Amino acid sequence: MAEALRDLLGLDAPSDAADLEFLEYLESLSLESVLSSEPQALAQISQSMLRSIQALSKRSHKYMVNSAIRHSSLQETIRDLDLRACELTATVPRLDAEAERFSRSLSKSGGSQILAQRKEALHLLENSERIVDLLELPALLLSAVTASPLGYSTSLDLYGHIRRLSSLYPESELVRSVRLQADDAIRQLAIDLITSLTTPNLKLAAALRTTGWLKRIVPELVPDLPAGDSLPAVFLICRFSNLITTLEALNPLRELADEERRRQHSAGQSWSGGQQTERFLKRFIEVFREHSFNIISISKNAGGCAGPETGSGIDNLGSIPPVLSAFPMHLVGMLLEILRTYLPVVKDQASRESILTQVLYCAGSLGRLGADFGMLIPSIGVAEWPDLIKRHRLLAGRLESVIADYKAPFTGVGGEPLQVQPSFCFRSRPLDLLKTRVQQSGQPTLYKSWLELRRSPNQLRALWRGTLPSAIRTGFGSALYFSSLNAIRQYAARSNVPGTGQGGMAGSTALPKLSNTANLLSGAVARTLAGVVLMPLTVIKVRFESSLYSYPSLFSAVKDIKGREGFRGFFSGVGATAMRDAPYAGLTSSNSDAKTVMGTPLAGSINFGSAILAGAACSVVSNPFDAVKTRIQLQPQNYRNMGQAWYKMITEDGFRSLWSGLGLRMGRKALSSALAWTLYEELIRRYGSL
């Protein structure tokens, strides 16, 4: 039935399966259904499909248009693809051949140049930092050369490193170029070093450093010339050029001397000038002496005296001697030529002797270096030279005898050598400290003071408190006292003050002979002056020794006294100190001088013994003022002045307090006075007036 319908409708076979299925569907329907309901169903389906197509067109019309456009060019694309495929098919054999050729060219066994270049590039990349360091070496060397003399050693070390690199890599163009730049820099260094040898006032240390650097440089710059032969000559030439430059600065004086020579030739025998020539010769000899001694001594120390090396089978009789052995002859010849030319112009005998004395000193100076030219002076016509030599040798002999006499040790008691120990002040510190501790309290007991010191944590340090201010005060005080005493005595002796003698030296003493009154007054004035000047140190010393104060240092003591009492505190007790020192020094001077008038060869023993007796006796007389002075300096609030302190001490502590610490003070003062006076007398006796 379906086939009949298909034939009726004229459809071509084979038809679509959907058409056949629809025809079979119509066959199954009744005629009424086909005529009535099926057209409506087909219309509905057509309408639904139309709406679906419209919706699809609305949604995907762009894609459809593009698809249609691409579909229109699909045939051309397929033809191009076919053409390219044919080309690819033809190219593949050539590609295979090129691949085989590339593989053969880059194989390790083929010695490929490309691989070698690539390997070299990689090697350079790996060592780029080393190459940069190598390229920076010339700039670094040049900066070290131009920096300062302090960089010369670094420059030589860098140059040695570059030379080692050059020996390790002789074929490298880079290393060769670096070596050439380094050679230029090191030549500049050699020029700078040689120039520095021509500078004025070259010291030995600088010369040794410079020659040492040149010894390292010259063998590299001039390999065929030994440094031992060239450096001494270079050094002497540089220093000689400096000498010539310095002497050329005397050309104005030389021109004046030449003018005097011309005037002498015109004046004949009546010539009596020569002042400008004398100035020129003295200045010339002075400069010549200084520079010639400096040149030869530095050259010897720098190795200039080394001779040429000798071999076992070489005859050196015809070899050139060291340059230093001939250089002094050249210098001496230059000096002798100047003396031969200009010395006859000077006619004044005193001026000639002065010039020849300079020449003598110059010859002696060079003689210490083996270049004495004194024997050549008579060859230039100096007739007075032998007499001048004799006089100077006589004076030198006398000077040696005087020095030998002065070097003899001082004699003390019993003729033994007197050795005044600077440590006497240090060793006697405990006595002075105990004396101050005894005088500071109302119960002057030595035993209690000693127990108090023993209870301190550091006994030794406590016994030597105040050593520094005491040493300063003793040193400067003794110098000021004896200088003032000697000046006053000398003035009194020269001024014929009543009571003075003839000003001579008598007995064992070397001081001017004065009366007892004059000795008393001179000693009192000198000692009072020294005591007033050194009063601040006395106050600080006493407070350091006392247990009432605990200063950690001199600065803290000065700061505390100034803050509490002002500058007046540094001079507390000055009246009592003057009353103590004036009688003590006056009586010591008078008693010591009275003892030393006894004629005896044992001058040192007499001076020592008389000073001990005088110091002990005067300590008894002056001790009350010392006790009052100590109270005023330690307790200025309670003891305001000497009179009030004296009265308060007597009323509260009794008369015994005025002589507290007498034994300690007597023992210390007697020995210190004996040592000081004996040394003073010996110095006066040996060296004259101070």
From TrEMBL:
Its main location: membrane. It catalyses: glycine(in) = glycine(out). It is found in: Membrane; Mitochondrion inner membrane. Pfam families: Dor1, Mito_carr. It is a multi-pass membrane protein. Belongs to the mitochondrial carrier (TC 2.A.29) family. SLC25A38 subfamily. This is Mitochondrial glycine transporter.
